Records
---
Amino acid sequence: MRTKTVFDMDNTLIPNKYYADAVDEFVLQMQRIFNGEKTAEEISDLQREIDRKKLLISGFKEDRFALSMVSTYEALCTMMNKPVKEEIKRISYNIGMSVFDEEAWKKNDLLPGVQETLEFLLSKGHELYLLTEGVEKWQKRKIEVTSLRKWFNNEKNNYLCVEGGKNAAHLLQLVNNEVAKSSYVGDKKTRDVSLAVDAGVLPIYIPENDPRDNKFFGENKDDPLDATAIELRSIIELKHRYEEVFQK
Ligand SMILES: [Mg+2]
């Protein structure tokens, strides 16, 4: 039985629509400012392209996303031969930084079924771990301000927040190389399943259904799933299909 269970955090245990919502808000503002001269898709495509470039160059830096909005605004001004206004740069930056709103994290808390599933796994003697990537300070804060702190905390030393991007070595470190006993649960083929496959750990894939989030990660739900992976519709299936999933 696989009793070491590692979870991805965003959109696996807690909802993270904040980035996609911020892009929607930014696009609305840009369309208003430029009188609809560019379509919503053109603006969001440009912002995503700029943001991904910044991510490649500097990793998960705190205001990378906010700066991508400022750069997108500046690029739109250049394209349309309009002057850059400091006030609009500030508005764009603030929309980007709104993703770090602790009050919103507290309010949204866990995804449906998470609490019941984690408690059930503990009752079955599982060791629970969490592996996430992003700005370390804020990823840790998300654990502290949501109910996640109940299961993942400093005392248990059972989580890892990786700023430079998570990989198989981080997963192996968490489970102390006990691959045959371990599984990794996540919502992306590109970030979670691939990492588990690299580590030789059972990948459990619970797809995120928000196309905006998947687009950012270059995630295509139609791409083939690794043959070793188990796909579930919802996290509660870890409980309802317990024997079948963890005996694999
Ligand atoms: Mg995720």
Note: The first strand starts at residue 4 and ends at 7.
---
Amino acid sequence: MSIQVRVDRQKIEIQEEKKLTEVLKENKIELLDLAYKLSSGEIVHTDLVEDLANGKIVPASELTLTDRMRIGLHSGLARQHRREAFQIIKKDLLKNNQNSELLEKIDHVLKFDFSNPNDEGIFPVHQMAQAAELDATVCIGCNKCVEACQRVGINYLKLEGEGRSKHVVASDDPTIDCIFCGQCTANCPVKSAREQSQIQQVEMVLHDPELVTIVQMAPSVRASVGEEFGAEVGQNLEKKMFSAFRKLGFQHVFDVNMGADITTMVEAEELAERISHGGKMPMFTSCCPAWVKFVEFYYPEMIPHLTESRSPQIHSGGAYKTWWAEKEGVDPKTIRVISIMPCTSKKYEARHEKLKVDGLWPVDYVLTTREIAYLLKKNDIDLMALEDGELDSYGEYSGAAAIYGASGGVMESALRTAAFLLEGKDLEKLEFEQVRGMEGIKKAEVVLAGKTLRVAVATLATNMHTLMKEVKDNPEAYHYIEFMACPGGCIGGGGQPIPASDEKTAKRIEGLYSIDSSMKMRQAHQNPVAKEFLEYAKSQSDDRKFELLYTHYSPKKKGE
Ligand code: SF4
Ligand code: SF4
């Protein structure tokens, strides 16, 4: 049986498993394959290529090709590693004043093959803020990312070129901008469209004995990461993930769900305030950074409708670097918070200067569900074989937080707590079924404290445009609207396991609702950890309280 592999865009058929070096030679593809011994004894290979299935960099001479392997020979990452290898060898040669012939050869390669310090692949890597990137060098022109972006309703991507040179490019139309949702990355079969990886940075943090590491996992990840390990779709694997985090070396296992309970309380207070004392209505949720970017770029005039509440990962990250650090006597500067998210736009959000607390990022690095699965596999951690583990007590969360990952979940959580704030008692029935499900727009009327509220829940930018028009035509049409960029909400996020499908997303959603219904504590205002942090935040000066709980927005230009 023949074996089919792909090197960059070129399909190659071989008759048996072989080393990549051999296949490259047979196909007259040049790659300088030095294995140089440094004076320290370490061997440096120059024939580095990218195994596109997992982003691993490996020497071609050590890589045996198996069926359907995809190799990035000129991918941005492979070229970056090859350039670094040549530079290391050059430095060693200069230091030890040896082998002038080899030095000349390397100088030639660095000058002619890697002359630009920002040199990337055949096509430069196009970065969408800190969220996603397009490495068109390995693009096979399948159009899936273009369709995904069209489905979202943004149309930022298109294909250029013909035949084998067909590749993805970003739109230069000044009226169109990427919102960093990552749906293109969740639909690309060859990682040409992909998240901007922070695996390396997280590995460095985990190996630094001076640092205090905190990991916090988003609501959705626990119901989807199992797909990478053969589990049933929607299976809640949070307890195994808690064990896996400790095996990777994280010192404190907390949870973005705790942050979601803080967000719910802050947002519910604002909703109750706007309802009772008048404020810009309808109020919009703001915990999806792709949606916030959508408003800031496409509808800046609607910014006052966004709740001022920070998002869950930013609330909990900030809480751990301030209130928790003070309680535990830890220097906040030594803390590194790593979020595990189903989303690429959370990488972008984590780098907002305006969200810093006491001059520090609330979240230092963000890994997607796919990235954490890769890190576990790289460390030979078989998730399904692990014993259940426990969350550290500062990560405690309510059922209301667990449903944040599903479209309608943020609204349902906020309504549970807003009802408590307005009526002074808990609701008898906590479920708001009308706002659940996969539909792109859901509308409902709910009664809180004797007042009928018209609410809506939308996913995908196409539906956001529809609701924006409705709100502009009739500002009183709604009181409260939840928006999420991805199909089904965060659970269908751009950082989730590939391949993506609505059927899978619907099953993952069932997993989240069953976590909620199985919990004793199902309302954010019952969470003692979130409540204690809120009391702390509210006891601070106005400026610091703002830094801990709230944010502001501003119109954005293309690329910002
Ligand atoms: S991140 Fe989202 S908006 Fe940006 S190109 Fe990809 S699918 Fe389109
Ligand atoms: S999905 Fe990937 S391979 Fe297909 S066109 Fe887009 S970037 Fe290229």
Note: The first helix runs from residue 20 to 26.
